[in-house]
Write a structure and sequence with these properties.
0% strand, 75% helix, 297 residues
């Protein structure tokens, strides 16, 4: 009899979860901007990955084809040393999207772990981590990144990823800490503690799943933030090495007034790629917030 009741409860839980998922999907699909953002993100990502798999040439200079405007041969034109701009924008997308996604995920992981520790234990541990986050937040974000880049010296992908992760965890940290401070007094947490469950299990298996929704939304919007950060640093010559064709490095070639005035395609197409992708991520993040965040409902 008890087995029958248990199976019935499990079936009811599965049915409720399935119904909630369908409801959320329908609500997401009604948000036209969110759907547009998802379509744009998927389309650009697939195009960039396909270009990388096909191995199209993005780096070989062709002095006879320098600064050619868009045409049937070169859809985006060529840059200042004759390289196919479409190929560079597609390859640059692979690097820029990877930087944005990797840094957003890793900074959220660091922020979530530190926020869970601070929120659950409180006291001196909480005070120490709060002060540490305040030290990082005392500087404007871009200035802090520029300082760390200058200290590390070498312009490499590894250094860029390290700097972004080190400087990007504070928002997630404070959000997770605040949620843990309010949830650690809940009845289910007290029951787990009474049964002798380890603190690690309570923190990461019982409480953290209830905080995943804001983390997912925050991580999504942080992808756009890190893409813009990389583009900003590369444009002023502090990003990854010039040989790496990120969107920011492609824009770097358009710093001269002559290029801006006479070769508009060199800065319009990479700039449009950055703007469109970042805008799409923001649309998607807003849509996910509407669907997943109970407070928005």
């Amino acid at each position: 009899m008890s087995n029958t009741n248990t199976m019935s409860i499990k079936e009811q839980n599965k049915s409720a979860a399935s119904s909630l998922m369908k409801k959320n999907i329908r609500k997401f699909l009604r948000n036209k901007l969110a759907v547009f953002g998802l379509v744009v993100i998927v389309a650009i990502t697939i195009a960039c990955v396909a270009a990388a798999i096909m191995g199209i040439d993005y780096s070989t200079p062709n002095m006879t084809m320098m600064k050619k405007p868009p045409s049937s041969e070169f859809l985006f034109g060529t840059d200042t040393i004759g390289r196919d701009l479409l190929a560079r924008v597609l390859f640059g997308g692979c690097y820029s999207i990877f930087i944005g996604v990797f840094c957003a995920v890793m900074s959220s992981v660091v922020g979530a772990v530190l926020g869970a520790i601070a929120g659950y234990f409180g006291g001196k541990v909480d005070m120490l981590l709060i002060r540490l986050s305040e030290i990082f937040q005392a500087f404007p974000q871009l200035v802090l990144v520029m300082m760390l880049v200058a200290i590390l010296g070498e312009r490499s992908m590894g250094n860029m990823l390290f700097v972004f992760i080190v400087t990007g965890w504070m928002t997630t940290f404070r959000m997770v800490r605040n949620e843990f401070m309010s949830l650690k007094g809940e009845t289910y947490v007290k029951v787990c503690e009474a049964f002798g469950m380890s603190k690690i299990n309570i923190m990461f298996k019982q409480i953290l799943p209830n905080v995943l929704t804001p983390i997912i939304v925050s991580t999504t919007t942080n992808v756009a933030y890190f893409i813009l950060q990389e583009a900003s640093l590369s444009f002023i010559g502090l990003g990854v090495a010039d040989s790496t064709p990120t969107w920011g490095n492609i824009l770097n070639a358009a710093k001269s007034l002559q290029v801006v005035q006479n070769q508009w395609w060199i800065w319009v197409f990479p700039g449009a790629a950055i703007s469109l992708f970042v805008l799409a991520i923001n649309f998607l993040g807003d849509g996910l917030r509407d669907v997943l965040d109970a407070k928005q409902q």
